[in-house]
Amino acid sequence: MQKDFRLEWRQRAALSGMLLYVGSTVFVCYLSFALRGGELPVPAWNALFWIILLFTAVNAVAKGFLQESQGRLLYYYTLVQPQAVIMAKIVYNALLLLGLALAGFGLYAVVLGNPVQNMPLFLANVVLGAVGFASTLTLVSGIAAKATNSSTLMAVLGFPLMVPMLLLLIKVSKNALDGLEFDASRSSLLTLVALNLIVSAVSYLLFPFLWRS
């Protein structure tokens, strides 16, 4: 994790590019709706937010393994266990996505309004979404890095895996926008937690075999 943070700090242009991507996408939404005098409906607000976060996650996590050279991976192989590598990547990407998600939500709420009535539920859902996207896409990034056309392969493998998670996230967000209590979203939140734990466990168990390939 320390290596990834240092590398991100040295390549600040990449982080700036991700922030610019979030800002430009929100601005396009503003030009499409608010600037023309139309009020953005709550379901559309919810859908656009998660679309922005989904594509931001793909762009942010894709470089996790794709930027690592074969020589550097071989060097890691002599230093640490593969489980340490994959768990560090997941935690780092989760923190990165959480920061981008909160920054994007702040800008999104300022530009297009904030219809969220149950903010603690919405923020808890964003945290679970960031962790879920990070864990899923990190493993997919490791698989794609071993193949040709890795960027295309990551998109092909990643989106189908995230559809069930995305449906749950949108459902919980809709409940938060409507002002429903935690009890109305308890089962969905527990399912999201279970999905995150399953993906992390699968990554922990299977990544050593991918590491040796």
UniProtKB/TrEMBL annotation:
<feature type="transmembrane region" description="Helical">
    <location>
        <begin position="12"/>
        <end position="35"/>
    </location>
</feature>
<keyword id="KW-0812">Transmembrane</keyword>
<comment type="similarity">
    <text>Belongs to the CcmB/CycW/HelB family.</text>
</comment>
<feature type="transmembrane region" description="Helical">
    <location>
        <begin position="152"/>
        <end position="170"/>
    </location>
</feature>
<feature type="transmembrane region" description="Helical">
    <location>
        <begin position="47"/>
        <end position="66"/>
    </location>
</feature>
<dbReference type="Pfam" id="PF03379">
    <property type="entry name" value="CcmB"/>
</dbReference>
<feature type="transmembrane region" description="Helical">
    <location>
        <begin position="90"/>
        <end position="110"/>
    </location>
</feature>
<feature type="transmembrane region" description="Helical">
    <location>
        <begin position="122"/>
        <end position="145"/>
    </location>
</feature>
<feature type="transmembrane region" description="Helical">
    <location>
        <begin position="190"/>
        <end position="211"/>
    </location>
</feature>
<keyword id="KW-1133">Transmembrane helix</keyword>
<keyword id="KW-0472">Membrane</keyword>
<dbReference type="InterPro" id="IPR003544">
    <property type="entry name" value="Cyt_c_biogenesis_CcmB"/>
</dbReference>
<protein>
    <submittedName>
        <fullName>Heme exporter protein CcmB</fullName>
    </submittedName>
</protein>
